[in-house]
Structures are given as C-alpha cells and as structure tokens.
Amino acid sequence: MTLLTLLEHSPYLLISLAAVMGLLVGSFLNVVIYRLPVMMQREWRSDCLNYLGQASAESGEKALQEAIVQAQQNDAATYQAFNLTLPLSRCPKCQSAIKPYQNIPVISYLCLRGKCAVCKNPISMRYPSIEAFTGLCSAIVAWHIGFDATLPWALLLTWSLIALSFIDIDHQLLPDSIVLPLLWLGLFLSEFGLFTGTDSSIIGAIAGYLSLWSIYQLFKLITGKEGMGYGDFKLLALLGAWLGWQFLPIIILLSSLVGAVIGVSLIILTKKDHTIPIPFGPYLAAAGWIALLWGDELNGFYLAFIGI
Questions:
Q1: Which of the four, 161, 212, 251, 269, has the lowest number of CB atoms within 10 Å?
Q2: CB of 285 within 8 A of CB of 164?
Q3: Are residues 97 and 89 in contact, defined by beta-carbon separation less than 8 angstroms?
Q4: pLDDT digits (tens, 9 = 90+) for 112-147
Q5: Can you tell me the distance from the alpha carbon of 150 to that of 195, in angstroms, rounded to the nearest whole number?
C-alpha cells in the first residue's frame, strides 16, 4: 500500500500529517513574519540612497554625494547577509546560536520552559502560538477537504494568509512578494477548475480589487482621508481569483462585521485612539479562509436570509 493510498483511506492520518506539516511551516512563518518586512525596509532604503546618489551626481553636489556614498558603505558593513535563510536564528539578547534540536515547533519551547538555553532570557509566547495556530488551521483544512486535489493548494493559501495577517498587524503591510504570486496562482488554478472556473476567477480578481478601490476613493472624496491601503485591494483580488466572484459579498460582509466589532472593542476596552488606523488585512484573510471552507453554506444561508 502506497503512502497516498494510505492517506486516502485514513482520514485521521491525513489530518495528523497536515497538523505536523502546519507546525513545521508555522516555525518558518515566524521567520517570514519577522524578516520579510525588514528586508523590504532595507531594500527601500537602498533604492532611496541610489536615487539620491544619481540626483546628487547630476546636480554636481559633491558634499551630498559623498555623504550618500558613505551611508551606502555603512549599510554594506552593517547589513550583512539577511534573508529568509541567513543569518541563522540566534537569541536576541546573548546572540547564542539556536541549535536545531532547540527549534522544534512548540516542543522545544515547552522543554526550554520559554527561556533561552544559554542566558535564560524569556522567549516570546508568540512564536509557539503561531506554530500551534498554523498546525491547528492546517488540521482543520485537511479535516474539511479530505484527500482531494485541492488540499495542497488550500494549505498553501492558509499558510500565506497567516503570514500576511501577522505582517499586517505588525507593520500595516501586505507584501506584494506574497500577494501577487498567489493572485496569479489562483488564476492559474482556475484553468483546472480546482476552486472555481476561469471566468469566475477572472471576474473575481477584477471585482475584488475594484470594489475596495471604489470604497477607498469614495471615502477619500468625502472625508479627505485614506480609509485603507492598496494592499487590501490586492488581497481581496487574490481571494476573488481563488474562490470566484460569488464569494466576494460574504467575504466583505464577514470582514467588515468582524473588523467593526474588534475595532470598537479595542477603542472601548484599551482606550485605543480611534484616529490610529487598524489593519484590515487580517479580517479579510480570516473571512477569505472561512469562505474557502464554508463558503457554499454561508452563501446559501445569506441568500435565504435576504429572500433570494
């Protein structure tokens, strides 16, 4: 009996495997969530210095040009290789390297009692929480979808939405390096009818982007303020490409309701300044994930509720 046959006829084994994979991926997502925004900021700084260097050379401002060259040299000396693989993980306090057996998702945190093995500096509870949350979500996806051709892609979308959500919470950024490849992948998968058809996917991507873009423009026209970022438009376009335009109303409704409830709760309970923007990406991501698994049932309930 092959592994695929065993997974097909053993749902508990499939769910367990998905949960373990989720734990491992969750450990990697911790790296992505922390490092990708830093990589983006360094790239933006480098681009700005290059542009200013060209402008100063054209204008003949030697003092400015020398200052920019010095800043570039300082950056090159300070910013060593920094990507999703290098440098290896270290304790932020004592800089001791984290050994592979100290980096087992959740288990290592429990064995180390939430502290660095060398300096005993507390390790943030966030790391095992993201690992456990990713494992749980992966298990739910495997339980709901089962042994199906859509399962690997649904897991990929789930993991990506988790990374996007936490990056948006931390930095109010939805990186194009994650969103755009996923958007194109959703359109590509529609060619095989895995989640929706091609026509529905294309219309979903267009309608997803334009719907929030229109709301943004209308809000800006009325208030003179920006109500959301362009990353939110792209994220909804991504979800429209994967799931089809039919699921956009329920995604927008769910994300708006959850966002309103959480936003008001934060203002009341934590005295959060209502003028400080709250990232909308996590609500879109959560609503899109719910629609991925239970979209047909929710759409049926919604249409029955409004009498259609």
A1: 269
A2: yes
A3: yes
A4: 888 888 788 888 899 999 999 999 999 999 999 999
A5: 7
Q: Are 198 and 240 in contact (CB under 8 A)?
A: no
Q: Under 8 Å CB-to-CB from 170, ≥6 apart: which residues?
A: 33, 37
Per-residue pLDDT tens over the stretch 233-250 = 999 999 999 999 999 999
CB 231 within 8 A of CB 173: yes
- Concatenated DSSP letters for 36-48? HHHHHHHHHHHHH
Sequence-distant (6+) residues with CB within 8 A of 272 are: 266
Judge contact between 191 and 198, C-beta under 8 A: yes
Q: Which two tokens stand for residue 114?
A: 């939430």
Helix residue ranges per DSSP H, the chain:
3-9, 11-59, 62-78, 107-111, 126-145, 151-171, 176-190, 198-223, 230-243, 248-270, 281-305
Question: Taking the chain, what is the end-to-end CA distance rounded to the nearest angstrom?
Answer: 49
30's CB contacts (< 8 A; 6+ apart) are: 126, 127, 130, 131
Q: CA 240, CA 242: separation in Å to the nearest integer?
A: 5
Tokens of 61: 């401002």
Q: Can you tell me which residue has the tokens 């009996």?
A: 1
